Amino acid sequence: xxxxxxxxxxxxxxxxxxxxxxxxxxxIEEYIDSPxxxxxxxxxxxxxxxxxxxxxxxxxxxWKSNRKIDYRIKEIGRNKRIQAIIALSxxxxxxxxxxxxxxxxxxxxxxxxxxxxxxxxxxxxxxxxGIPMPEFKVIKSVEDILSxxxxxxxxxxxxxxxxxxxxxxxxxxxxxxxxxxxxxxxQIRDEPCTFMVEQANSGSMIIVDGxxxxxxxxxxxxxxxxxxxxxxxxxxxxxxxxxxxxDNKLWNDSQQMAKKIIHAMPHVPYISSFHLELFYTxxxxxxxxxxxxxxxxxxxxxxxxxxxxxxxxxxVLGQCGxxxxxxxxxxxxxxxxxxLLPMQEGVIVSIPNECEVDGVLSYKKNVEKGxxxxxxxxxxxxxxxxxxxxxxxxxxxxxYNNILNWYNNNFLWERV
Length: 416
Fold this sequence. Notes:
This protein is of the alpha+beta class. It has helices spanning 24-29, 48-51, 68-79, 93-102, 119-128, 142-152, 175-184, 187-190, 229-234, 249-264, 299-307, 311-319, 393-410; strands at residues 10-15, 36-41, 56-59, 84-87, 136-138, 156-160, 170-172, 195-199, 204-213, 216-226, 239-243, 272-281, 284-291, 335-342, 346-350, 360-365, 372-373, 382-390, 412-414. The chain contains 13 helices and 19 strands.
């Protein structure tokens, strides 16, 4: 059966993703004949083959704060009919939704996408619906954080309202650290609020990744962090993600919690990927945060191994107006995971070309021997990543530990 939905469309792509892993034209042309693709890109590192796949290309620096991107899209929209705007990165989700509304393009979220970006907005929505979560407060003054610490004690977590990848997060364990934090963060005193404080949670982190539309989950998997994003970014610790055993109690409880959260959040009118993080403590789940985009690291890769579904591709097609995507049977034979191996400061003097640990499916290094590197700034700043497969979570955890031993024995930096 012909699955094409339209003979021609002008589609504008707001992109800061790796184009080697995002074949926009190939994905779109499965459903739309001869689309006109306009690419707004975050850097100029496109090879000739990539350039040939787009009808127009514009490159912008200072991506997140560059409002010329918005101006140019509106300018193009005055001269030609744009049928779809695609945005996959967290920092572009609200921007794209606002531009769709301005240009009267379909697929506008009724209540806006701010709730998927601003942590205080999402938490207030879900708290009103009875979703359990740690206590929190938006910081509007020094008094706010002081009164919160007096009421709930330590440790506390202070985080930006709209960042990802553990960027800008601080753990405050006592009053001395709080004093140091207040003195170091001028923004709390002198600028508009961009931070919130919440109770720290010592439990493990569960993640639910999948596809949603109109307040319902279409498909999802459940995984756990080994380590956490903050330690990866701040303490140069490895970060792992392993899928939970299919259909066990934690898998089912997480799925049920995810359904309630997706239904309570503003309903995205197109097929969109989502990334949900939950705290898991003493057998109970609590909300952490949610995003209307694909999870970072190699989430998309292990999701595709498990389900045969590429979340990024589905997100692109959904934003193009494709309302029906073929879903596959989940792979119950294997579970999948990945490890992000942290970058350190110095010149790398030893880095393997292959990872021979049993169970490894793929290994990619991001630097070469002799290169000068800096320490992680966020969780995704890794020297290499490894994707692996096992029969269950316990086997995945053992493989992950073997990968860490291999990393410690084979990666070496020289301080300069």
